[in-house]
Amino acid sequence: MPGVITDEAFLAVCRNAHPLKSDATEPPELRLEMRIFDEAGFDSLARVEVIAVLEATYGAVIEQEDLASCETLQDLLDLGRRHASHSGEG
After folding, report:
1. CA distances (Å), 74 to each of 16, 25, 63, in order?
2. Could you report the per-residue pLDDT of 22-36, keeping only the tens digit for each?
3. Nearest Cα to 86, choosing from 56, 53, 58?
4. What is the fold, at CATH topology level, of the domain defined by 7-86?
């Protein structure tokens, strides 16, 4: 059974998926209140990477239309937690 998605684990996933990770430049210090694209500096591919890790690691099933309401990293984490907590039920 997948574990709970902690803030620290989520931010680690975000750092690993950050577009600057492959550059010589370090990604910005990420905080949950940061806006995904504006402040955190994510592109759409990095967001997809984070979602893929949440799905693979925590069993979250996140639909594309649910992402439209995600503006901050916290929103994305909350979405992952909601969907992870409901996976396997039914």
Report:
1. 17, 24, 17
2. 665 676 789 999 999
3. 58
4. 1.10.1200
How many residues comprise the chain?
A: 90
pLDDT tens across 39-72, in order? 998 999 999 999 999 999 888 889 889 998 999 9
| Domain residue ranges in the chain | 7-86
Closest CA relative to residue 74, chosen from 20, 5, 18, 7: 7
Terminus-to-terminus CA distance in the chain, angstroms? 15
76-84: list long-range contacts, CB under 8 Å, 24+ apart.
Answer: 76/10, 76/36, 76/47, 76/50, 76/51, 77/5, 77/7, 77/10, 77/32, 80/5, 80/10, 80/51, 80/54, 81/4, 81/5, 83/54, 84/2, 84/4, 84/5, 84/54, 84/58, 84/59, 84/60
User: Beta-carbon neighbour count of residue 55 at 10 Å?
Assistant: 16
Residue showing tokens 């997809």: 48
